[in-house]
Amino acid sequence: MPSARRLVLLTLAFAYFPIAVAGGEDKKPADASAVAVDEKADTPARVAAIRALGRTPFADARPLLAKCLGVPQPQPVQLAALETLATFDAAGVPETVLAMWPAMTPTLRAAAADALIARPAWRGGLLDAVEKEVVRPADLDPARVQLLQKSPDEKVRGRAEKLFAGTSPSKRADEIAKYRKSLELKGDAGKGRAVFKESCAACHKFGGVGEAVGLDLAAIKDRAPGSLLVGIIDPNREVLPQYTLYLLVTDDDRILSGMITSETADTLSIRQSDGTAETVRRSVIQSLRGTGLSAMPEGLEEKIDLQAMADLLTFLAAAK
Asked: Order of strands across the sheet with 255-263?
């Protein structure tokens, strides 16, 4: 039997050191709520607090997690908020996630799409957003589109097949028709290399020329010249998520537009159409919005005549 003195000491220990006696952290839900949205707190502490919100009622956690998805938040905080939202079996999750979709970076959109596709009950919400053009078909990469098109749910499968069946008619049909004449001309790969260097090399690397920022053209070297031609003149017909044009506004009202080339926990790097790149801290971003358009601008052909286009297509077909 312990002595009276020892009982007193044990009582005092439990009173003043409850966490130490328990053998670990014992963060209350109220504490987690405060830390999760505290932008002065360390990121790892915030991530842990956000995950703790998964043990609270969805109605209480929802506004906090929505705030943690905001543009200025560090990427680990945003991803933790998505991860925690995905743990709730609640009808309001898709609405919460999709409300932030326009401001999400490609990395965050991929995680959000995975979360929404994972639960059968949420797939309809994602397709609703595609129908309403909140989510553009090009926002989802082919692998995730295929998951929806092959869904075991017949209704989801049918809607996905319809929504992702193709793109709208080209608004550049006249330009494409005009430049199809270049397919009938004999091209010169050497001259095409010079055209590429002048008009394409700021964003693309191919045949030992240019910068590897945009689409890897080596991956399309086996495509038909006609298909390459359409891609050059109508870049918005097929836009992969990682090559989407974003509009970024800083808290001092500076506007940057371009492709997001890299992300860290606290920064975004954006490559602008003039080839310059800028790294911006997330904490100074006022708004960020994906346009659904290609970072490659329309009108490239305006500086390329029919013969030069024939030369460029020949270079793209010949270079290794």
From this structure: 277-281, 267-272, 255-263, 244-250, 285-294
How far apart are the C-alpha atoms of 123 and 159, rounded to whole Å? 10
- Give the burial string for 70-93 (b: 16+ CB within 10 Å, else e): bbbbbbbbbbbbbbbbbebebeeb
Per-residue pLDDT tens digits for 293-315: 777 777 777 789 999 999 999 98
Residue 134 in any domain: the answer is no
Residue for token digits 């077909």? 317
Q: Please check whether residues 74 and 192 belong to one and the same domain.
A: no
Q: Which of 61, 96, 129 is the last residue of a domain?
A: 129
Taking the C-alpha atoms of residue 150 and residue 115, their distance in angstroms, rounded to an integer, is: 17
Structural domains in the chain (count): 3
Could you identify the residue written with the tokens 């003039």?
Answer: 274
**Residue 277 φ then ψ, to 5°:** -120, 145
Does any domain span residue 9? no
Q: Which residues contact 303 (CB under 8 A, 6 or more apart)?
A: 198, 199
pLDDT per residue as tens digits for the range 90-112? 999 999 999 999 999 988 998 99
117 in Cβ contact with 147 (< 8 Å) = yes
User: pTM of the predicted model, to two decimals?
Assistant: 0.65
Domain hosting 248: range is: 241-294
The type of residue at 134 is: V
Give the three-class secondary structure for 46: helix
Does residue 31 sit in the same domain as residue 124? yes
CB atoms within 10 A of CB 271: 21
The SS3 assignment for 245 reads: strand
| 246 within domain boundaries | yes
